[in-house]
């Protein structure tokens, strides 16, 4: 058992998952905002995009981030079975997004590491979550 699970007042799994999604989203936003201050960021994005139109690439990023934002709410309201699998699948997809769409700037690597750790925790806690109704 982890320290979180062995505490005297056990944290509700829905609250824990939702809170971890909040941490992920704040870090995603922080990484994007800090990246705006680096000269040549747009050129780097254009090189990454290749033949893909940048607005289409941005739409893909927006959809992926919106799914993560929805998980903040869905983690609290979905029933056990759907909630568990939604968190597992979405955390894996989001890890792929963070790792695949990132840059090599030190601030991004640091923030992406925090995001991936939180996403791995989300997947782990969802995977180990047992049915509260028995």
Annotation keywords:
mainly alpha
Alpha-beta content class = mainly alpha
The beta-strand count equals 0
The count of domains is 1
Level of helix content? over 70%
What does this structure look like?
With about 130 residues, this protein is mainly α. The chain has helices spanning about 5, 15-35, 40-50, 55-75, 80-100, 105-125. Helices cover about 75% and strands about 0% of the residues. It contains 6 helices and no strands. It has one domain (about 10-35, about 50-125). Helix 2 packs antiparallel against helix 4 and helix 2 (about 15-35) packs antiparallel against helix 6. The relative contact order is 0.16.
Summary of the model, kept short:
By secondary structure, the chain is mostly helical.
Secondary-structure map with pairings?
Blueprint: H1 3-6, H2 13-35, H3 41-49, H4 54-77, H5 80-100, H6 106-127
């Amino acid at each position: 058992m982890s320290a979180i699970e062995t505490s005297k007042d056990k944290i509700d799994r829905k609250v824990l998952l939702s809170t971890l999604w909040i941490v992920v989203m704040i870090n995603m936003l922080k990484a994007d905002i800090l990246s705006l201050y680096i000269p040549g960021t747009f050129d780097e994005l254009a090189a990454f995009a290749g033949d893909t139109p940048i607005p289409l690439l941005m739409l893909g990023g927006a959809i992926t981030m919106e799914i993560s934002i929805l998980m903040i709410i869905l983690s609290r309201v979905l029933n056990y079975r759907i909630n568990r699998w939604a968190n597992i699948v979405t955390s894996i997809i989001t890890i792929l997004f963070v790792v695949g769409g990132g840059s090599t700037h030190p601030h991004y690597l640091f923030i992406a590491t925090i995001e991936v750790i939180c996403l791995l925790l989300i997947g782990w806690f969802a995977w180990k979550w047992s049915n509260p109704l028995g």
